[in-house]
């Protein structure tokens, strides 16, 4: 009987941690989803889902540093060749590197666009990695890196 009570007590003590883990993951997902909403809206609203020192690496290898510089560049791009383009989340997984650091990996489908070199792109799949940190009680994107998914030829 004592053994069952100890096991039951152990399970009950773990339950609050499970709830906290779910809450953390939900909060990280919300920050990442806010980025995709901003993408679809052309990055006009303040980037309150990102840290002041946000780093953004685009699929062409360009890098922006700092929230306002990143937002400015993204807004310019979304007023030109990505105007009206949407990026729809397909899958998202979250892993925690520490209590206040998460890594999010998202695959998404980008709607058709024409790049500055005149190449017409159909709908394309992308994969993005986010580093999300907890600062001031909020989960914020600190870094993201976006890469186009390219299917390799079968051997």
List SSEs in N-to-C order: HEEHEEEEEE
Level-2 CATH architecture: Roll
**Main sheet overview:** 6 strands, mixed
Q: Rough shape?
A: globular
Number of DSSP strands? 8
As for the CATH topology, it is Nuclear Transport Factor 2, Chain: A
Write down the Rg.
19 Å
Show unreliable segments: 6-19
Kindly list the characteristics that best describe this protein:
155 residues, alpha+beta, Nuclear Transport Factor 2, Chain: A, two-stranded antiparallel ribbon, 2 helices, 34% helix, 39% strand, globular
List the helices and strands and how they pair.
Blueprint: H1 2-40, E1 50-57, E2 63-65, H2 67-79, E3 87-98, E4 101-110, E5 113-114, E6 120-121, E7 124-135, E8 138-148
Question: Care to give the gist of this entry?
Answer:
This protein has helices at 2-40, 67-79; strands spanning 50-57, 63-65, 87-98, 101-110, 113-114, 120-121, 124-135, 138-148.
Provide structural commentary:
- Helices cover 34% and strands 39% of the residues.
- By secondary structure, it is of the alpha+beta class.
- The chain has one domain: Roll (Nuclear Transport Factor 2, Chain: A).
- The N and C termini lie far apart (61 Å).
